């Protein structure tokens, strides 16, 4: 029996409830059709935020109510099903790709923070996406080697400094077989986190890099000004 089949049996026994209104969704979707239509979707035809030159960046939802509450529940409320549900919403909001990525890589958490939180929300979002699309989840290709303060609340320049030396690649042999890597995170703001990771992967010879995040919030105007300096 495949895990997908097990999920269907479990869904029949314990109907999936909408993360937002609590009604049974009728299938494995995390949000009922009514709530799904009300979500602040970003049109996938829009050019994504150009935060990293040469890297295709796309975000599914605007980081506003109720998406901000879902992210907070996943991140700080230790709500694993909410994190997976955000991954399913990411899958629903993104167009199909002509060529699947060779590896879907979640932005890693430092092991100590992951132990505190119980899981890495970016990894669970990536898992929801990969379950939906049938893509390979590879959380073993990089890790966060230095604990860093939360990015939120820091200005753009501080965000970049905060991440210097924070990540390291592991498993270079597996990486050599990855032509196209898709990085996944929960929220994109200045792009400092994914830019730091992208730099490592591109320097290691990865030819194509894409970034998908569940939500996007533009940085405050003063941070945009700081980024241009
Ligand atoms: Zn609902």
Structural write-up:
With 229 residues, this protein is α/β, with parallel strands linked by helices. 40% of the residues lie in helices and 15% in strands. It has helices at 3-13, 33-38, 67-75, 80-93, 111-117, 121-133, 156-163, 172-175, 192-203, 221-228; strands spanning 56-62, 103-106, 142-144, 167-169, 180-188, 208-216. The strands form two sheets. A four-stranded parallel sheet has the order 1-6-5-2, with helices on both faces. A two-stranded antiparallel sheet has the order 3-4. Helix 9 (192-203) links the parallel strand 5 and strand 6 (208-216). Helix 3 crosses helix 4 and helix 4 (80-93) packs across helix 6 (121-133). The longest helix is centred in the middle third of the chain and has 14 residues, at 80-93. The mean pLDDT is 87. Bound molecules: zinc ion (ZN). The site of zinc ion (ZN) has 8 residues, from helix 2.
